[in-house]
Structures are given as structure tokens and as C-alpha cells.
Amino acid sequence: MPAVQYGSCSYELKQGESVLDALLRNGVAVAHACKAGSCGSCLLRAVEGELPARAQAGLKDAWRARGYFLACVCQPEGDLTVAAVGNDARIAATITALDRLTHDVLRVRLVCDAPFDFRPGQYVTLFRDNALARSYSIASLPEEGVIELHVRRIPNGSMSGWLYQEACAGTPVHLQGPSGECFYAPGREDQPLLLIGTGTGLAPLYGIVRDALKSGHRGPIHLFHGAVRPAGLYLGEELAAMAAANANLTYTPSVLEADVPGPFEVGPIDGIIARRFPKLDGWRGFVCGDPALVQMLKKKLFLSGIAVRDINADAFLPSAS
Ligand SMILES: Cc1cc2nc3c(=O)[nH]c(=O)nc-3n(C[C@H](O)[C@H](O)[C@H](O)COP(=O)(O)OP(=O)(O)OC[C@H]3O[C@@H](n4cnc5c(N)ncnc54)[C@H](O)[C@@H]3O)c2cc1C
With a 6 A CB cut-off, is 203 part of the ligand 1 pocket? Predict the structure, then answer.
């Protein structure tokens, strides 16, 4: 069986085991979350040895060239020597503000110690320390000078619990990234845009909508934000004001259940959209949030006429044990 060398120790991999699982089994503290090759939390650097192609799939060229790889999907055929990633992948940042947007959504603002290029809608991996990292979508625009994240509180959640209870303005953290392809690409300015998010799936869309408007997008932009109950909707007044100020922007909040009527639609978000836009040929779509909903909506957008290349999605995969 191949072995993985980390620091001064070498660990033999079991049949079918990933580098991440072998390190964790031997008590090495490696940050990780989705364990599906998606969130990027377990990024490591190969110093010596052959990496399977899958372990570097989707990484930036510069990271691939430096031997960076995702430990959770790395099952090497031969011995591998690995190390932590360098400063080109992770930068120091400081939390500057924490504001509650709802009872269970926290707006986290950070500034980076060094220039950090990103597109609104991409995601960063936030490191509390070397052992705890989670990915969050970027809601801010680069010119705002801050990274804004919207973090939903998860019961017993390691990162969200820490952000709610312990982190404060001035707390130092590290950021890795940016990653992901879910952002507004300039061009085709007359194309209709459809943006759908539930819960904190609004975070990337809040960045993407403002980026599209700032880039001079002329086509209609339809933003749908869904929640289970009205208390789960957030930034509603601000988005309604943005829609009032931009003739091509429509903002539609919706909830699954409500005791009294309000400024929102009631019912499943996919049904509300299908009734309003049964045909979507030639549109561009953005879908973010709960993985099952993202999967279902991607399929529905495709069946309604949006080309696969025009469907941008980010599924907020939870951590796996
Ligand atoms: C690309 C990407 C982008 C993301 N963007 C955002 C974002 O913008 N905002 C945001 O709030 N989150 C986002 N997430 C999810 C985020 O990374 C964390 O998974 C989430 O904050 C929970 O982390 P935690 O440490 O608080 O909970 P954990 O300690 O990871 O989880 C505690 C327990 O709850 C379970 N759990 C975790 N999340 C859920 C869930 N949603 N539903 C049910 N059970 C769950 C876990 O499996 C575990 O058993 C994103 C994820 C990915 C992969």
C-alpha cells in the first residue's frame, strides 16, 4: 500500500483510503469539510510523488503547477510526501464587523492583509485555525474593500457557532481562494438573467446582481429569494429599493409558509418561477444554496430552455464526518 509522508511521520494508506482520511485516522489535524472535492478546505501541497488527476480537478492552473491538491479525493498509486499550502493560497485577514441579518443569519465582514482579487459570487474558505475551515460565498464587490459573507447558524456548527459566540471585530483568521465559477461574466448585456437562492444562497446572488448592474447589464434581471418563513428573508428592504432604482431589476421574495400575508409570495420557489416564466430559452441562470434544491433547480432550468453552459450554480455542501 502507498504511504503518505507528512512532516517527519509516514502513514500507510488503507485500501481505497484518501490522503485526508489516512492523516485524520493518525491524528493529524487537517482542516476539511465537504469531503467531496468541492469546498477546498483540505488543500495540501505535494512535495514529492505522483498525484492522481482527480485530486487536482477544478484547481487554478497556478495551484496545480505548485502541486496543490485536494486531500479528500486523493488516492495515490505510489508514495506521496505532502505539506501545508503556502502563503500564495492563503492570506491573513481580520474580522471587522459581525451583524445579525435575521435570528440565524450573520453578516461577517473581513479585510485582508494583502490585495485579494475575486469576482462577487465566488467563494472563499475561511480558516479559524489549521484544523477548522468552511467555505462561504462572497456577497461584496471588490471596490467595497471588504469581504462580506452571510453565515447561517447551524445547530452545533463548529464554524458558525464560533462566529456567533466567540469571534468579534478584530479576530484574526485566514482566507483561501477565491474559488468557484458562479459569477457574472460581462458580455451578452441584453440577455435575461434569472437568479434563485434560498436562505444564505442569497449571499452570492447579492454580489452577482450588483456586479451585473455595475457592469451595465441591460437585459431583465429577476432575483428570487426563498425562505421557509418570512423571518428567514433578509436584506428585503434594500433589495426592493435596488429594484425601484433599476428598471431592469425585479426582486421577488417567497416563503413556504406564512401566518399572515406580506410582501412576499407563498409556495415552493420552483413553482412560483415556473408559473411566471414557463419558457427560459436564451436566459442565463444562477442557483445557489441548499444542495438538493440547487440540483433540482438546475434540472428545471435546463428543461425550461436554459443551455447547460448558461447555468451557474453553487451548492452549499455541508461538512461530512
Ligand atoms: C462552495 C460552498 C459555499 C458555501 N457558502 C455558504 C454561504 O455563503 N453561507 C452559509 O451559511 N453557508 C455556506 N456554505 C456552507 C458552509 O461551508 C458550512 O458547511 C456551514 O456554515 C456549516 O458549518 P459549521 O462548521 O457551522 O457546521 P458543521 O460543524 O460543519 O456541521 C454540524 C453538523 O450539522 C450538519 N450540517 C451542516 N450544514 C448543514 C445544513 N445546511 N443542513 C443540515 N445539516 C447541516 C453537519 O453535517 C454536521 O453534522 C457553503 C458551502 C460550500 C461548499
Answer: yes
